[in-house]
What does this fold into?
Amino acid sequence: MKSIKPKTFYFDHGENSVILLHSYTGTPNDMRLLARRLEDFDYSVYAPMFAGHGTSNPQNIIDEGHPDVWWQQTIEAIQFMQQQGKKKIAIFGLSLGSIFATKALENFNDELICGGVFGSPMFNDDYTNVHKGFVTYSQKVKEHYDGEASSDFLESMRTESAVALDEIEQATEEVINELQQLKKPFFIGQGSADELVNPNGAKELNQTLTNNHVETSFHWYENAGHVLTVNSAHHQLEEDVIQFLNQQMNNN
It folds into this structure.
């Protein structure tokens, strides 16, 4: 199968529209299967690429990316959809993207119909596996493009990514602290075998929103890992998201 170079993509198919935000170390390619399925139901889909991602150098994520930068890109994604004349907009995020999808729903109550998260790190009690995952990702990318990953490079990634993840964790806490501002219907997808975040954090998020009288749609995917949009759960996730979207779009 021919690989597709990671880049922002936009599929213009109808007045109902969806923004998809990818994960840390991920790219819009991770959202492409879901986007194509949404196309089948006449949804317009926009998946921006976060700053620092999609390159041959993992260092770029740390040097060019930051929660403030990614948040600004999220705002610009909403503005882009509005500029395309879309009036019914939903937003979903995978892992890192879920932080900003949730923040968008907290801050753009009038502009967004609904949204949700897949493999969210909110209410995650330990970022050790996320840190290890980034170092492993950096090693694989470096070996793929340069043939090897030096010990100095890997040590630099361990140190610098720890600082970057602290910033992401702080941004996540800020979003959690503002959950009472979220009023829109909210989709939560979580794999039971998630290797990067604590799966039970999704249950806590669901309970918190339910306590806040938010309409939630909670989906637990047995034996599925972290990247729900491409792993064994992706077919079911697609159908669940479409059912959720169809209901919410028809109600507004």
Q: What stands out?
A: The first strand starts at residue 9 and ends at 11. The mean pLDDT is 95. The radius of gyration is 17 Å.
